[in-house]
Structure formats: C-alpha cells, structure tokens
Amino acid sequence: MDEEIIEEVLSSALAKLESSSNSEMMLMNDDDDDESIDPDLIEMIQQQSIVPTTGSSVVVSSIEEIPATNDDDDLFVEDETTLERIIALKEITLLNTSKLAYDKGRSAAWWITSSMCVLVFPILIQKELLQIAEQISHEQRSILLGPQAATSALSGSAF
After folding, report:
1. pTM for the whole thing?
2. CA distances (Å), origin 55, targets 19, 52, 61, 108, 137
3. Superkingdom, according to UniProt (predicted)?
4. Given pLDDT bands bounded at 50, 70 and 90, which one contains residue 71?
5. What is the rounded distance in angstroms from the CA atom of residue 157 to the CA atom of residue 155?
6. Residue 13 Cα distances to 48, 59, 114, 140, angstroms
7. pLDDT score at 25
8. Which whole-number Å values give the CA distances from 60 to 2, 5, 15, 71, in the listed order?
9. Cβ pair 141, 153 in contact under 8 A
C-alpha cells in the first residue's frame, strides 16, 4: 500500500515538473525567437529537476518509517556489579593514597633540604675555615722556623 502511494506521489510530481519545464521552455522561446535552444540542454535541465524530487520523496518516506528514539539514555546505562564497584573504589583509593604520599614526600624533602641549608651548612663551612686557618699557620711556622720546627710543633701539639 505504501509503495502505491509513493508511486502516485512520484508520478504526480514528475507530471508537474514536465508541465512546468514545458511552460518555461515556451517562455524562453517567446523571449528569444531568433535563437533555438539545444535539445540536449533541455534534456539535461529536465533530468536535474527530476532528481531532487525523487530523492526528497524517498528521504521523506524513510524518515516517516524510522521511529524517533532517544539514544542518549542508552549511552549512560551501564550494568555494574558490586565487585566491579569495589574494584573501582580500591583503584580510586590507591590513586588518592599515592597522590597523598607523593605530596607528603615532596614536602618532607623540602623541609629536610631547607633545614640542611640553614642549620648544617654553616657548621660545615665554619669547620672548613678553621682547617684552612690551621693549615695557613702551619705553613707560616715552616717558613719562619724551618721544616723541623713545623714537624716538632705538630708532634708537640698532638700530646
């Protein structure tokens, strides 16, 4: 039954197009009496005017046949078991724990490094300066008193 209706609609549309194209050709012939229109051109124009009509009727009939559904609801429906939810929760917990450990580790590393710079490095630098001052005094004694005085001073200061 639908096919008969579609054939009737197509045949009526085709008849209307043929009559309208014939009337257009008569108008063109009335305006341009001196020039004749190429028959191939007329045939090509008729074919172009027929194609959209048949295509649109097919599209209209196909749209009517397909019921409208809401596909968005189908995308978000997921069947999850309790076990899958527990596994997902463990993964989230593991991620949160690792982020927390990373942040705390960074914070601890910063505190240790800054404390070393403020408290320990000045002590190490002072110790190094004292060693350099002792070495300089040792060199001055060896120059003034000779090499034996420098060795005896070392051995004497050791006791």
Report:
1. 0.34
2. 20, 5, 10, 72, 107
3. Eukaryota
4. low
5. 6
6. 14, 15, 88, 120
7. 56
8. 12, 13, 19, 21
9. yes
Asked if 14 and 53 touch (Cβ cutoff 8 Å), the reply is yes
Question: Which residues lie closer than 8 Å to 9 by C-beta, 6 or more apart?
Answer: 57
Angle, alpha carbons 112-118-124 (nearest 5°): 100
Say which residue the tokens 């899958």 belong to. Answer: 84
Take residue 14 and report the two structure tokens written for it: 């085709």
Whether 83 shows a pLDDT value over 50: the answer reads yes
Please name the residue that has the structure tokens 């028959």.
39
- Which H/E stretch holds residue 7? helix 2-31
Measured CA to CA, the distance from residue 151 to residue 141 in angstroms comes to 10
Q: Which two tokens stand for residue 99?
A: 């982020």
- Residue-level pLDDT at 38: 76
Q: How far apart are CA 129 and CA 127, in angstroms?
A: 5
pLDDT one-digit tens code per residue, 107-142:
999 999 999 999 999 999 999 999 999 999 989 888
